[in-house]
Amino acid sequence: MLQSRNNTSRTRRGNQSALRRARLAKAVFDKRPPRRTSGGRTIGPQDWLLIPAVLCVVATFILATDIPLPFGWDLPEPVWPMVLAFSWPLIRPSYIAPLLLAGLGFFLDYFWGAPLGFYVLCLMAVYGATLLIRSYIVGQDLWVVTVAYGLAVLLFFTLGTILTVIDTGMVPRLISVFEQMLATGVLVFFVHALLERFLHADVRFT
User: Fold this and answer.
1) Do 54 and 145 belong together in one domain?
2) pTM of whole model > 0.85?
């Protein structure tokens, strides 16, 4: 009788151990299917990484065209990748996003004739700072996101001004810096749109 109880106890322990191993294997090797949007389409890296990056390049080209405006005004030229430098670390920390952001920075260096690495450094500073305070922004009201984005824009242009002074020994025309900073700040509505679409989605890609 005692031997039977011992055998039963060993069997139960064996079953529990096997169950734990099965759960561990499922947790390690099984992957959940990606969440789908309301239209039934999977949210993948092309949605929250590649497409926004391409759109930033296209928007930069469009606003750089010499379109005549009333009173001799020119089209504003905001720093479109700023939207991604702020939004991407909030949506999901990723090792792909900084690489794409660096590519966008090199594009701006070439397109606007800046020293190589100028915009890369400024964008990476914003990305890193946003990543550090991510836990304080995610889940907050829109006004908190707006204020945080405004501070990120201020960081970007302050760092850019300092680097320009170091590189050229001259202070850039501050009114032009302010105009571009204001135009970049208005892009906060695109930040809201990206966060609304992707922040709580099960985005795939690390």
Assistant:
1) yes
2) no
Residue range 15-48, pLDDT digits in tens: 555 555 555 444 333 444 444 444 445 677 889 9
3-state secondary structure (DSSP) of residue 17: helix
Question: How many domains is the chain built from?
Answer: 2
Residues 6+ apart with CB under 8 A from 181: 153, 154, 157
Residue 95 and residue 4 share a domain: no
Amino acid type, 161: T
25/40 same-domain check:
no
**Are both 66 and 121 inside the same structural domain?**
yes
Residue 119: its H or E element: helix 118-132
- Residue written as token pair 């964008």: 123
Query: Which one, of 142, 125, 48, 59, lies nearest residue 87 by Cα?
Result: 48
The DSSP output letter for 94 is -
Each residue of 162-176: pLDDT tens digit?
Answer: 999 999 999 999 999
Which residues contact residue 136 at a Cβ distance below 8 angstroms, ignoring those fewer than 6 apart? none
Query: If phi over 0 gives left and psi between -120 and 50 gives alpha, with beta otherwise, what is residue 68?
Result: beta
Q: Rounded CA gap, 180 and 163, in Å? A: 16
Structure tokens at 143: 């006004």
